[in-house]
Amino acid sequence: MTASNQVAVRAEALIKTFGNTRALDGVDLEIPTGTVLGMLGPNGAGKTTTVRILTTLLRPDSGRAWVAGHDVTAEPDKVRRAIGLSGQYAAVDENLTGYENLYMVGRLYGMNRARAGARAKELLTRFRLNEAAERPAKTYSGGMRRRLDLAGALVAEPAVVVLDEPTTGLDPRGRMETWEVIGELVADGATVLLTTQYLEEADQLADTILVIDHGKVIASGTADKLKSQIGGERLELVLAEAADLPATAKVLAEVGSAEPVVDEHTRRAHVPVDTGSKALIEALRRLDAQDIAVLDVSLHRPTLDDVFLSLTGHSAEEEKDPS
């Protein structure tokens, strides 16, 4: 691939094996310049292995990849100069202040003292860390450390930013803060590869989503496109009595387009429907005829969680990445 202003990252038929485990089994991907690709899948799907190849930390067994027009195998130094990487765990020196962390990164990139200092102050302000700039990083909250780590990935103003599960281990507030920062990167026109196992994160942040499972790309497209692939809407009910779930499941099977899913603990039942409000009205009519009390009812489009379950046959359960 030659350098292109249109495509920032491209991978073709990447294969990587660890022992008897094939972590990647022919992965293809493409990220147009100035967009966000969300790579979605559970731990063990191959996301981190893909990131390590694209950031030159691993060599593929076969296949090729380019970042900012540079071959990751033939031109690793040029690739490293073109990327900023934030991994699953904040890579900050806890004994240094926020300012010192960013200043050190700038110096390691070859910036002179004045430029490194100016860039550190600029990023501390941008990431809302200027008030904590002179405090040791060990006093920062999880969300603050993550913002400092993201700032470090941007010190050298990279062409491509790689965020490998950036909200892993954060509490809800820290996740929201990180989403805001990533949103700002996107607004500034950054090209971003985001790996995540959080379905709502991909839905919120990515222009295009690539679903990967057991080392293979099983679907790609916008969130809306992926949701439309499994069709229809979801009819969901919450019952007053768990004992009524079997009869409710029978009704939903008759008005729906697939087998209903029942959760006894929450007294919920849901099913895909093709006829929208007509299916809802018919279901309620039949349940009322059986004196089944419904506490809540909703009709909504499929979520990315529905998409993942439909595509893979399982939820995004935790597994260890072979790499």
Can you summarize this structure?
The chain is 36% helix and 27% strand. The chain is of the alpha/beta class and 323 residues long.
Helix content: 25-40%
Please state roughly what percent of the residues sit in beta strands, choosing from under 5%, 5-15%, 15-25%, 25-35%, 35-45% or over 45%.
25-35%
CATH level-4 homologous superfamily of the largest domain: P-loop containing nucleotide triphosphate hydrolases
> Could you describe the largest sheet, including whether it forms a barrel?
6 strands, mixed
Based on Cα principal axes, name the global outline. elongated
What does this structure look like?
The structure is a single chain. This protein is of the alpha/beta class and 323 residues long. The protein folds into 2 domains: 221 residues, 3-Layer(aba) Sandwich (Rossmann fold), CATH 3.40.50.300; 69 residues, 2-Layer Sandwich (Alpha-Beta Plaits), CATH 3.30.70. 36% of the residues lie in helices and 27% in strands. The chain is built from 11 helices and 14 strands. The protein has a 6-stranded mixed β-sheet, sandwiched between helices. A 4-stranded antiparallel β-sheet has the order 2-1-4-5, with helices on one face. It has a 4-stranded antiparallel β-sheet with strand order 12-13-11-14, with helices on one face. Strand 12 and strand 13 form a beta hairpin. The relative contact order is 0.15.
